[in-house]
Design goal:
about 270 residues; alpha/beta; two-stranded antiparallel sheet; 12 strands; globular; disordered N terminus
């Protein structure tokens, strides 16, 4: 009565080829739509951190690393500068960092320009000049507070210059101003979750390392709230681990925990 025609199921290679064709044709509906191409991002080299960013920090944008002092924000900034100086130039404006610590994080100091800027307006002017040159892949500046010379007009200009230079302007500070929050394409919050000490309690103990929780607070191409755990070690030579002690400073978030490879603390 009915003529049924049997169609065998596609073999795994054929299925994979079909899926690849569909992904290419309908890219906007696939995971690939939220993963930026390698040449359009500045990677940190920290696998899980780059993953929650969708591949890395988008070039041509402003990003922030926000957190308290010694929260690991400069350790991440150093890794980004290491990538920038590997094949190009990087700049550090108005931020005091120990050069040997930068070198330990992989930064090529001969490719890094350090600019002193005692005032926020001076840091903004320096960032303006550096971005206009078009030769810096990454420029790190303080998270400038709201005020004369650091308001909406300044961030509008810096955002336009970063886009034109295809560079990443990274603002580092405790908290971003309302203007910076608006113009930043990516905002990352850092916090110390665990500290490790080597040796006995008291003055004879030495810092062995710490874990930094990096959480996405804003991202135009990724869901906020994603986080990664970064294990940092000190760059100085220290005694062998004899009595490692840990102190938990903050509870881990409920979502899946991603632990990533160790980086040198800055």
């Amino acid at each position: 009565m009915f003529d049924y025609t049997f169609f065998p199921m596609a073999s795994p290679p054929a299925f994979a080829e079909l899926r690849e064709r569909l992904d290419q044709r309908f890219r906007d509906t696939t995971q690939a739509a939220f993963t930026l191409a390698g040449d359009t991002v500045l990677v940190s080299g920290i696998t899980a951190f780059d993953r929650i960013l969708g591949g890395g920090l988008p070039r041509g944008t402003i990003a922030t690393l926000e957190g308290a002092l010694s929260s690991g924000r400069m350790a991440i900034a150093a890794r980004l500068l290491a990538t920038a100086t590997r094949g190009g130039l990087g700049a550090l404006v108005g931020t005091s960092v120990f050069p040997p610590a930068l070198a330990a994080a992989g930064v090529r100091l001969e490719r890094l320009l350090i600019v002193s800027a005692p005032e926020p307006a001076a840091a903004a002017r320096a960032a303006d000049i550096l971005l206009r040159s078009g030769v810096f892949a990454a420029v790190v500046i303080p998270a400038l507070p709201s005020g004369r010379g650091t308001g909406s007009a300044t961030w509008t200009r810096l955002a336009s210059l970063a886009h034109r230079a295809n560079a990443v302007l990274i603002a580092v500070g405790v908290d971003a101003s309302s203007e910076l929050r608006y113009f930043a394409s990516v905002r990352v919050e850092t916090a110390i979750e665990r500290v490790r000490w080597n040796g006995p309690p008291g003055h004879f103990g030495t810092l062995a390392g710490y874990d930094v929780r990096a959480t996405i607070r804003k991202h135009k191409r990724a869901a906020p709230g994603a986080n990664a755990l970064i294990s940092c070690t000190t760059f100085e030579a220290h005694a062998p681990l004899v009595a490692l002690r840990e102190r938990v400073l903050a509870a881990a978030p409920a979502p899946s925990r991603k632990r990533i490879t160790s980086v040198a603390a800055v």
